[in-house]
Design a protein that fits this description.
The structure holds two protein chains of two kinds. Chain A is of the alpha+beta class. Chain A is built from 18 helices and 18 strands. Chain B is mainly alpha-helical. Chain B has 15 helices and four strands. The chains are: A alpha+beta, B mainly alpha. The interface between A and B is large, with 38 and 55 residues.
C-alpha cells in the first residue's frame, strides 16, 4: 500500500506542478498580451485613476480634471474649451484623444518613462507618476483675437513666430467644447453625434487638417520660384504677359480681376494681384521648378507634425502647362492648410529661412521639472535671402498701396497678400477669402509674427468676399496682439 | 553519541509533540492575516481599518481555542495542519473583505466570519469527541446513505446560476454536496479497506485485465453511475469530477490495480465527453475553456473566464498589492469561485505560488499521516481527505486559470461559502485526529494478527 500512496502523492505533486506552470504561463508569459487585450478594462481604469496633467497657455492651465467617483475616476475639464479645442483636442473616456491630448498623452497621463525618477523601481512597486504638464507656444491674446475676429464664421487662423517656428495661434471656427466629450454615457455620445452631424463640422480643425485652394496667396510661392530661378531678374521690370492671357495649349483665356495687368512687372502683379502675369511666370519657371519651390515651403509634405499631423498641402507634380498656369495662381489642384500659408508668410519674413512649426514649447513633470524642451529647428531654406528681401518689399507694397490695406498697423511694418479662391464646379462653391501677412514692430530687428487667415462664409454675398475685405482685419487684430507682446 | 554508560535501562524514546511549534506558527498565521487586513485598508482608504484589533483578536481567539483543543485531546497531532488552515481561512477573510469594499451593498465577510467560527467550533467538537477515527468505520453504510440523500435533495430545489446544488431555506443557503464529500470518503475508506484483497486478487481475467467479481464490482459501478448522475441532474461537473477522482485515487491506493482504473477513467472520460457535448450548460463551459475570448470577438464583452485571466495577468510576478487590483470586474462569483483571481492579481505569481504551496503542504501532511498509520481504514481515510483538498484545489484553480474547463467549486478555506468552510474545517479536524494516532509512540505495541503484512504488487 505504501508504494501506491507514494504514487498517489506523486500524482498530487503532478497536479501542483501543472497549476504552477499554468500560473506562470498566464501571469508571466502571456501577461502582456492579456494586459493589452482591448476588452481588458484595467488599462482604462488605471489611466483615469489620477488627475490628468494640464495643457498650459502662457503659463496658465486651460485644462483641468474633476473627480467623478465613477469607475473611471477623473474626467477632463476645459476652461475655454471652444477657444482652445484646435490646440488641445479632446481627451475622452469614450472616444480617445486628439491633437496635443493625443500627441503628448504619455506625459499627460503620467506613463512616460521620462517622468519617473527611478523607472526600474517604479516598475517593481507599480507606482505611477502624476501626469506631467504640457506648455504650448500659443499666446492667449492672439488666440482670443483670432477667435473673436472669425466670430463664428467658418474659417481658421494660424500664426507663427517666423524666427523660431513657434505656433502663436491656432484657431478654427465654428468650434466645440471638448469637455462635453470627456466622460462616458449617453450625454457624451449625444454630443459626439451632434458635433459630427452638424453641417458646420465643429470638430474639424481647419487650421491644420483642412486644405483650401490658396488662390492668390500662392502667388508669393510662384514669385519666389520665378526670382530664385532668375526667370525674373528685376521685379520692377515689365514682363511680356498679355492680358487676358491664353492658357498654353488651349484656347481658354485667363482674365484678371484687377486693372493694369498687361505686361505688368512682378512687383505690380503682386501688389494688385494679377492672375495673368503670375500664371505666365509659373509656366516660364516650368513644372519642375515650381514643384521644387512649392516643396521648399512645405507643400507635398505629408509628414509634417506639430506634433499632431498636419494635412498634406498639395501642388501637383504631373501637369500640362495650362494646368501649371492655373496651379501657379493657387487654383486647379493646388490646396493648402492655413498653417501652410502661414509658413509661406513666415519664410518671407525670416529671410527665406523657414523654421519647423511647433506647438509644444516644453513638457514638465507635475512639479515643474522640464522633461523635454523644444526649440527652433530649420525646416527648409525656402528661397534665397535676396529673393526674400525682394518679396518682403512686394508684400509691404500690397499693404501700403495694394489690396491688403486693411491690414496696415500704425508703428509697424506689415507685409501681406490677399487671396480669393473660387472652387466647386463652375466656381459655384462659396469662395474662400485668404489673407497671409507678417508684421514687424518699427523698433524691432525682425518680424514678430506671420499669420494666415481663411474665411469661408456662405452667408455673405460673393462680391463682398475678398481677402482684403473679410480676412485682412482678422489678420491685423492677431498681429496687433502679437506686437503688443 | 552520549558518553555516559550506565546499567540503567535506556531512556524511553521521547517523540517531540511539537505543540509549541504549532502555537508559534499560529501566531504567525494570525499576524499575517491581520497584516493583510490592515494592508487592504491602507491601500484602499489610506487608513488602517478601525476594527483591525477586533478582527485580529477574533481570529486569534479562534486559533487559540482550536490549539487548546488539539493540545489537550490530540497532543501528538501534526503541528502544521492547524496553522495552515488558520492562515488560509484568515487570508480568505481578507480577500473577501477586500472585495466587499467594491460592493458596499453586498457584504460577505461578516457572514464568512460566522461560518468560519462555526467551522472552528465543529473542528473542536471533532477533535474533542472523536476519540478514534476507526469508530467511523462502523458507520460506513450509514454515511453512504446520508451522502446520497444530501446529494439528491438539491434536485428538488430551484437551480441557482444553472446548477442545482443549493438548498435555500429562508435567507440561509448551503451546499449539501460539500458535506457529502467527507461521508463518501469515509465510506470509500471503509469499503475498500474491507474488500481490498477481494478487489485486487479475485475475479476473472479477461485478456490482460483482471476484473473483480460482480459482487465487489457492483458498488464501483454504482459510484460511477452516481457521479455521472450528479453531473447530469445537478449540472455540477466539478463535484462529479471530484467524486470520481477521489474514488479512483482511493481505489488505486487500496488495490494498486492500474488496469481497470484505466478502464474506469476511460468510462468517465466517455461520460464527461457525452455530457460536455450534449448538456448545454456544461457544453458552454467547455466552449469557454477552448476559447475564452470568443465572446470578445463576438462583441459581447469579455466572459468571466476572460476577466479572470485578465486579473491573473494583471498580477504579474509580484502582484498589484492588496486592495489595488480590479478583480471585481469578474463580477458575479468574484468572492466565491473566482476568489483565486483576486489572490493572483493582488499577490502576484509569488503570492499565488505561496498559496498553492500551503495547500500542497496540507495535502502532503495528510499523506504523511496515512503513510505512518498502520490500519488500512485510517490510511485510506487520510489519503482520501487529503486528496479531496488536492483535487478541489486543482479543479477550481485549473478552472479559473483556463487549464481545464471551469466548474463551480469552492477554493478550500479561501472562497466565500459557508458549507465549504465548515466542511474543510472538519476535514482538517479528521486529519489532526488521524495524525495524532499516527504520531503517537507505541513502544509496547504488539503486532496483532488483524493487520496483515503489506503485500506489494510484484508487477
Amino acid at each position: 500500500m505504501i508504494r501506491y500512496i507514494r504514487r498517489a502523492a506523486a500524482f498530487c505533486l503532478l497536479l501542483l506542478m501543472a497549476l504552477l506552470l499554468n500560473a506562470a504561463r498566464i501571469q508571466v508569459f502571456q501577461a502582456d498580451e492579456l494586459d493589452d487585450n482591448p476588452a481588458n478594462r484595467r488599462r482604462t481604469i488605471d489611466r483615469y485613476d489620477q488627475p490628468r496633467g494640464n495643457i498650459l497657455v502662457g503659463g496658465k492651465s486651460v485644462t483641468g480634471s474633476k473627480n467623478t467617483d465613477e469607475q473611471l475616476t477623473y474626467e477632463r475639464t476645459y476652461t475655454d474649451g471652444s477657444l482652445y479645442a484646435p490646440v488641445t483636442g479632446y481627451a475622452s473616456q469614450t472616444y480617445g484623444t486628439t491633437l496635443i491630448e493625443n500627441a503628448e498623452d504619455d506625459i499627460l497621463s503620467g506613463t512616460d518613462p521620462l517622468l519617473a525618477p527611478l523607472p526600474l523601481w517604479d516598475e517593481i512597486t507599480r507606482s505611477r507618476q502624476p501626469g506631467g504638464n504640457v506648455a504650448t507656444t500659443v499666446k492667449d491674446s492672439m488666440q482670443r483675437a483670432a477667435y473673436a475676429g472669425l466670430g463664428g464664421r467658418r474659417g481658421a487662423v494660424a500664426a507663427l513666430e517666423p524666427s523660431t517656428g513657434k505656433i502663436l495661434a491656432l484657431v478654427s471656427t465654428p468650434s466645440y467644447d471638448p469637455e462635453r466629450l470627456s466622460g462616458t454615457g449617453s450625454s457624451v455620445t449625444d454630443a459626439w453625434l451632434q458635433f459630427n452631424r452638424a453641417r458646420s463640422q465643429p470638430m474639424l480643425n481647419r487650421a491644420i487638417r483642412q486644405t483650401y485652394p490658396p488662390g492668390s496667396t500662392f502667388k508669393i510661392v510662384t514669385a519666389a520660384a520665378a526670382l530664385d530661378a532668375d526667370v525674373v531678374e528685376d521685379p520692377d521690370a515689365e514682363t511680356d504677359t498679355p492680358s487676358p492671357y491664353v492658357l498654353p495649349g488651349t484656347s481658354t483665356t485667363l482674365p484678371n480681376e484687377a486693372r493694369g495687368c498687361e505686361y505688368a512687372s512682378l512687383a505690380e502683379a503682386i501688389r494688385v494681384s494679377c492672375n495673368t502675369v503670375m500664371a505666365h511666370l509659373g509656366v516660364e519657371v516650368g513644372l519642375d521648378g515650381m514643384v521644387k519651390a512649392a516643396r521648399k515651403f512645405g507643400f507635398n509634405d505629408s509628414g509634417l507634425r506639430i506634433p499632431s499631423g498636419v494635412a498634406r498641402s498639395n501642388f501637383d507634380t504631373d501637369m500640362s502647362n495650362d494646368q501649371l498656369a492655373l496651379s501657379s495662381i493657387g487654383q486647379f489642384n493646388t490646396t493648402a492648410t492655413p498653417l501652410q500659408m502661414a509658413m509661406v508668410a513666415s519664410a518671407v519674413a525670416n529671410g527665406g529661412d523657414l523654421k519647423y512649426p511647433y506647438l509644444v514649447d516644453r513638457t514638465t513633470t507635475r512639479s515643474g521639472t522640464t522633461v523635454h524642451q523644444n526649440g527652433p529647428r530649420p525646416y527648409h531654406q525656402a528661397m534665397s535671402p535676396r529673393t526674400a528681401t525682394q518679396l518682403r518689399q512686394m508684400m509691404i507694397d500690397v499693404v501700403e498701396q495694394g489690396t491688403g490695406s486693411n491690414a496696415a498697423i500704425g508703428g509697424a511694418t506689415v507685409g501681406g497678400k490677399t487671396g480669393t479662391a473660387q472652387h466647386g464646379i463652375d466656381n459655384s462653391g462659396t469662395p474662400y477669402a485668404w489673407f497671409i501677412s507678417w508684421a514687424q514692430a518699427s523698433n524691432a530687428s525682425r518680424p514678430a509674427v506671420a499669420v494666415a487667415v481663411v474665411v469661408e462664409d456662405a452667408a455673405a454675398k460673393r462680391a463682398d468676399i475678398s481677402g482684403g475685405g473679410s480676412a485682412a482685419p482678422i489678420a491685423r487684430a492677431v498681429m496687433e496682439a502679437a506686437l503688443r507682446g | 553519541m552520549t558518553a555516559t554508560r550506565t546499567d540503567a535501562p535506556p531512556p524511553q524514546l521521547r517523540l517531540p509533540k511539537r505543540r509549541g511549534v504549532e502555537l508559534a506558527l499560529l501566531v504567525g498565521a494570525v499576524l499575517i492575516s491581520v497584516y493583510g487586513y490592515a494592508a487592504v485598508g491602507l491601500a484602499h482608504d489610506h487608513a488602517i481599518p478601525p476594527d483591525v484589533a477586533g478582527y485580529g483578536a477574533g481570529l486569534g481567539l479562534l486559533a487559540l481555542l482550536a490549539h487548546l483543543a488539539v493540545r489537550f485531546r490530540a497532543p501528538h497531532a501534526d503541528p502544521l495542519l492547524l496553522p495552515i488552515a488558520v492562515l488560509l481561512n484568515g487570508l480568505g477573510l481578507v480577500l473577501i473583505y477586500r472585495l466587499d469594499l467594491e460592493t458596499p451593498k453586498d457584504q460577505a465577510a461578516p457572514t464568512q466570519l460566522i461560518w468560519s467560527t462555526l467551522g472552528v467550533a465543529l473542528f473542536i467538537v471533532v477533535v474533542v469527541f472523536l476519540r478514534d477515527h476507526r469508530m467511523l468505520q462502523r458507520y460506513a453504510y450509514l454515511s453512504v446513505a446520508a451522502s446520497l440523500v444530501l446529494m439528491i435533495v438539491p434536485i428538488f430545489f430551484p437551480a441557482v446560476n444553472g446548477a442545482k446544488i443549493w438548498i435555500r431555506i429562508g435567507g440561509f443557503s448551503f451546499q449539501p454536496g460539500e458535506f457529502a464529500k467527507i461521508l463518501l470518503a469515509v465510506f470509500f475508506a471503509a469499503y475498500l479497506s474491507a474488500n481490498r484483497n477481494a478487489l485486487a486478487y479475485t475475479g476473472r481475467r479477461i485478456w490482460k485485465l483482471q476484473l473483480p467479481t460482480g459482487r465487489v464490482l457492483g458498488p464501483i459501478v454504482a459510484i460511477w453511475l452516481l457521479s455521472v448522475g450528479v453531473l447530469v441532474l445537478e449540472r455540477d461537473l466539478g463535484t462529479s469530477l471530484l467524486f470520481f477522482g477521489l474514488f479512483v485515487i482511493m481505489l488505486y491506493v487500496a488495490t494498486g490495480r492500474t488496469g481497470w482504473i484505466a478502464v474506469g477513467l476511460l468510462l468517465a472520460a466517455v461520460g464527461a465527453f457525452a455530457v460536455g457535448s450534449f448538456e448545454p450548460h456544461v457544453h458552454s463551459r467547455v466552449q469557454d475553456w477552448l476559447d475564452p475570448f470568443a465572446s470578445i470577438d463576438a462583441g459581447e464583452g469579455p466572459s468571466q473566464l476572460a476577466q479572470s485571466l485578465f486579473a491573473f495577468a494583471a498580477g504579474g510576478m509580484l502582484g498589484t498589492g492588496l486592495g489595488l487590483g480590479h478583480s471585481i470586474l469578474i463580477g458575479f462569483a468574484a468572492k466565491s469561485d473566482f476568489i483565486l483571481a483576486t489572490a493572483g492579481e493582488e499577490l502576484g505569481l509569488s503570492g499565488l505560488t505561496a498559496v498553492f504551496l500551503l495547500y500542497a503542504l496540507l495535502v502532503a501532511r495528510g499523506y504523511r499521516a496515512g503513510l505512518a498509520l498502520r490500519d488500512p481504514f485510517g490510511r485510506l481515510l487520510s489519503i482520501g481527505l487529503a486528496s479531496i483538498l488536492a483535487l478541489q484545489v486543482f479543479v477550481i484553480a485549473g478552472g479559473v486559470m483556463g487549464l481545464i474547463p471551469l466548474t463551480g467549486m469552492a477554493m478550500p478555506f479561501l472562497a466565500q461559502g459557508g458549507s465549504s468552510v465548515v466542511t474543510n474545517w472538519i476535514i482538517v479536524a479528521l486529519l489532526i485526529r488521524i495524525s495524532d494516532l499516527a504520531r503517537t509512540p507505541h513502544p509496547d505495541q504488539v503486532e496483532t494478527g488483524d493487520i496483515a503484512p503489506i503485500v506489494e504488487d510484484p508487477s
